[in-house]
Amino acid sequence: MRVGLLTAFIAVAWLGQQVQVALAQTRPSVSPSEPAKVSAPKESPPRKEAGVAVSPYTAGLVTGPPQSTEFAIAQDIATTLASGQETGPRGEVALRVLPMVGNGGIRNIRDVLTLAGADMAIAPFVLVDRLRETRTIADIQNKLVYITPLFVEEFHLLAPSEIRSLADLEGKRVNLGEEVSAAAVLGREVLNRLEVKISELNLGLDAALDGMRKGEIFASLLVSGKPVNLLARYAQADGIHLLPIPYSKALQQDYLPSTFRREDYPNIVGSGESVDTIAIKCALFAYNWPTRSERFQLLEFFVETLFSRFPEFLGDAHHPKWREVNLHEVLPGWRRFGPAERWLQRQSGGEAALRKAFGRFLEQKRTSNPPDREELFQDFMRWRERKQGW
Known about the structure:
Layout: H1 2-26, E1 58-63, H2 69-82, E2 96-101, H3 106-114, E3 120-124, H4 125-134, H5 140-143, E4 144-160, E5 173-175, H6 182-193, E6 199-201, H7 205-213, E7 219-224, H8 229-232, E8 240-242, E9 256-261, E10 274-287, H9 294-308, H10 338-365, H11 370-388
Parallel strand pairs: 1-2, 1-3, 5-6, 5-7
Antiparallel strand pairs: 3-10, 4-7, 4-8, 4-10, 9-10
Helix pairs in contact: 9-10
């Protein structure tokens, strides 16, 4: 019996040794200095979390970091729509918008596609287009709709005084913002198109600014709508200025030209000076909830409230970027949220009918001067809105 056990043990040991030899022959060797290459798995279509949102009356809006214009716009929406509503017995309101801090980039879109409480996201149109073209996030075309285009976001490329042009950044350490943020993804694309080779860092803005003061970082990119309040507080005495980004032919297909002036950043841009840069359009996207679902109905109520109260956002109390918003603007290649499309069609059709009736009225009054005609119509529309309590 002992001899049998010993023989079995020797056989098992021999087999184990042969398996190790076979594996060593088939597995490629990896040197300590060479990282193993792992192929990225093909991503399956995103799925919303099974849990329900925090409240059937609360719409989640994913936005950029706290210092960004996207966050300021989301706060404007949340505070403005919270006012003027009838409250319930415990102070609850029929509609609440909850800003959710994101990074303004791919994470925003991924959150709105997966998180139960995330109904909407503010994101650059170009970035969302890239995700659709590359299929980085599968099935995005069917899962995402847009409510309205918003405003233009400028590329703020901050640099110390010794850096005067993009050519000075060749081979140097440049911060493009947190990984998968809009600044990181699109900043990398822009620098590649302009053939500027850098050593990329992915830090937050505060850490990057501190690194520039210490001479460890030579530029930092922020993509956000001007003016960014945090930047407006920086003085030229800090030795930090806005670096020009030329609107070259390589960028004209996907980007827009823009300019920083003294009124945008009086503590950074000198009197009578201007700094050329590029910009992108951002939009308010929403998850394509099933029709008749609770979340679909909540977003429908949100659209009705936001669009009908849109003139309130154009006042001085709100961010100046609201004045760039055109609710009727269309995003090519994307489907608008159904209730938003219907609201705009109703408004356009109603105004057209009013203009036609008003024209017949003026014909009877023999008012033929076109400027007087338009001025009278606008007065009439304002009077009509006051009468209806709009």
